[in-house]
Specification:
single chain, 331 residues, alpha/beta, Aspartate Aminotransferase, domain 2, 2 domains, 41% helix, binds pyridoxal-5'-phosphate
Length: 331
């Protein structure tokens, strides 16, 4: 099966990360370092924030749920955009929150409408940039303005699971925003560009008061020793990061060109995936599966006419395009 459903890195993980994880198995009879010191120091120096501002999670999904647990009581509000990541709804359910889902604009976040929907009982707002599954990207100035205008009783969780895939022109400094705003937390993951999805490790960055709240609800041994070791090695392997970035850029271009040439609607994407419209998306999903290619159906998002396709290796992209062309032909 060619795995193009879950936005994993088609290059796998870096050799340095693999070696570090293997070596860490020597200590796996012992409990992990609950303070995550080594990895936090490495992140701290890369991000230029104090190590105490960092919370490690079992994937960044755990940072999302820990934030909900730390900030939201039953009946209080959690808000996100239509077509926002499914885990936002799960986090809201976990804490029995009132849910507000703000209609999207052009498949992306409508920041003005989201701000207008905040009320006295709203406690948490999720924003994904780029967004999964749509691939949309917000204008940094508008995003910064949104965070600045957010009332102090609301925590903003900025989900940057795909930030490593942004081009130099698209990049912005969210760490500077964290330094300015005590109610902002930025969540990032090692699951996507760093290729460590199976090891489950991500992190959140926030000022000390919010970080302490997160740590107050964090299970003591939520991240494993091999995961932390691999993450630290992955962080240092800039060659692998560059190869990942460049492969995604060329694959995304090649895939969108090929799919558009087949007459399909492809939304521009800032991530390592494309959202594609099909005349019959469920039939295409099944047709690709039958040809050994797994992509993601978007029914849970209400996007029943679209599929999300992860960028792959050149030969995987080629196989995908051939399989799509074949499945489009009337039987
Ligand atoms: C993949 C993803 C995450 C993080 O997943 P983890 O594996 O838990 O780190 C978070 N947010 C979005 C939008 C994602 O697509």
């Amino acid at each position: 099966m060619i795995p193009l459903a879950s936005n994993e890195n088609p290059l796998g993980m870096s050799d340095a990360a693999r070696q570090a994880a293997a070596q860490a198995l020597d200590n796996a009879a012992l409990y992990p370092d609950s303070s995550g010191r080594g990895l936090k120091l490495a992140l701290s120096s890369q991000l230029d924030v104090p190590a105490e501002w960092i919370t490690l999670g079992s994937g960044s999904c755990e940072i999302l749920t820990l934030t909900a647990q730390a900030c939201v009581s039953p009946g209080e509000g959690v808000l996100w955009s239509q077509y926002g990541f499914l885990v936002y709804g799960q986090a809201a359910s976990l804490v029995h929150a009132r849910r507000t889902v703000v209609p999207a604009r052009d498949f992306g976040h409508d920041l003005d409408a989201m701000l207008a929907a905040v009320d006295d009982s709203t406690r948490l707002v999720f924003v994904a940039n780029p967004n999964n599954p749509t691939g949309t990207l917000l204008d940094p100035a508008q995003l910064q303005d949104f965070i600045t205008r957010m009332p102090a009783h609301v925590t903003v969780l900025l989900d940057e699971a795909y930030t490593e895939y942004l081009t130099p022109e698209q990049r912005y400094d969210s760490m500077a925003w964290v330094r300015q705003h005590p109610n902002l937390i930025v969540a990032r993951t090692f699951s996507k560009a760093y290729g460590l999805a199976g090891l489950r490790i991500g992190y959140g960055v926030a000022q000390p008061a919010l970080s302490q709240q997160l740590n107050g609800v964090r299970p003591r041994f939520n991240v494993t020793t091999p995961a932390m070791a691999a993450a630290q090695a992955a962080l240092a392997d800039t060659d692998f990061q560059q190869r990942t970035y460049e492969l995604n850029l060329s694959s995304r271009t090649e895939l969108s060109r090929g799919l558009r040439a087949l007459g399909l609607g492809v939304l521009p994407s800032a991530g390592n995936f494309l959202m594609v419209q099909f005349p019959d998306a469920p039939a295409m999903h099944a047709g690709l599966l039958a040809q050994g290619i797994e992509v993601s159906a978007l029914g849970p998002y209400g996007l029943t006419d679209r599929l999300r396709i992860t960028t792959g290796l050149p030969e995987q992209n080629h196989a995908l395009l051939t399989a799509v062309a074949r499945a489009l032909q009337p039987a």
